[in-house]
Amino acid sequence: MTDVVISHTDRTGAAGGTALAETIGAGLPGKPDAVILFASPRNDHLALLGALRAGAQPGVLVGCSSAGEFTHDVAGEGLTCAVALRNPDMQFRAAVGERISADRERAAQQIADGFAGLRTHQYRYRTALIFADALAGYTEGLIDALTHATMGIYQFCGGGAGDDARFQETYVFCNDQVYSDAAVALEILSNKPLGIGARHAWVPSSQPLRVTDSDGMRVVSLNVSPAAEVFEAHATATNQVLDRADPLPFFLHNVIGVATPDGHKLRVPLGITADGGVQCAADVPRGATARIMATEEPRAAAAAALAVRDAVGQLERAGSRPKAALFFDCVATRLRLGAQFGGELDAVARELGSAPFAGFNSYGQIVRAEGQFGGFHNCTAVVCVIPE
Amino acid sequence: MRAVTDALGARDLILFVWDRETGAFIPPSGFPQTLPSGRSWQSFAEAAAYADAPVEGRLPAAAGEPLRPALGIGGVQHSGVCVLIGEETVPRPAPEDIEVMRLVLPLLAAAVRAEWAEDAAAAQAALATREASRAQQLVARLSDARNELETALQAAESARLNLEAANVQLQDQAAELEAQASELDAQARELQSQSEALQATNRALEEARAVAEAANRAKSEFLAKMSHELRTPLNAIGGHVDLLALEIHGPLGGAQQDALRRIARAQRHLLVLINDILNLARIEAGRVEYRITTVPVADALMEVRSMIEPQLLAKGLRMESSVVPSDLATRADREKLEQVLLNLLSNAAKFTDQGGRIAVTACSAPEFHGCEPAGDDASAFVTIEVHDTGCGIPADRLDSIFDPFVQVRSASAGATEGAGLGLAISRDLTRGMGGDLTVESEFGVGSTFRVQLPRASRDSGSVAEVR
Question: Does the complex come out with an ipTM higher than 0.85?
Answer without folding.
Answer: no
